[in-house]
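Priority: medium. Attachment 1 of 2:
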């Protein structure tokens, strides 16, 4: 598990290898990740957007941005947390992801970015 705190918001990431499949005659590697967002600040916050940089060891960097996470824009009161699961497909058994969440402080309407720590994606069978 990797963790990082930005302005009192703690991000924890756990990864898993989900398996392989063929798509358009190419091998694909499926990875899952579980993210927990903890509000350790004194203010209520809302996550309204995310930005991901997905690096596949055999191809170029993919950038994904959009609203919310898995269709939600969670509001976190002080001391609350939100956990969700998602995943990605790679053409290689190795890769990495990093990014940030766009958040708004609901007490003063200020927006800020919360860093998502870089985490590795690796298929267990490919590691020596």
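Attachment 2 of 2:
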């Amino acid at each position: 598990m990797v963790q990082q705190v930005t302005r009192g918001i703690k991000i924890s990431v756990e990864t898993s290898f989900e398996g392989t499949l063929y798509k358009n005659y190419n091998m694909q590697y499926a990875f899952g990740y579980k993210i927990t967002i903890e509000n350790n600040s004194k203010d209520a916050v809302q996550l309204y957007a995310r930005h991901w940089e997905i690096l596949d060891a055999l191809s170029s960097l993919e950038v994904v941005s959009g609203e919310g996470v898995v269709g939600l824009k969670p509001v976190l009161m002080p001391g609350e947390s939100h956990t969700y699961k998602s995943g990605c497909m790679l053409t290689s058994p190795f890769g990495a992801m990093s990014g940030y969440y766009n958040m708004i402080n609901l007490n003063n309407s200020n927006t800020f970015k919360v860093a998502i720590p870089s985490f590795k994606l690796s298929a267990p069978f490919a590691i020596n």
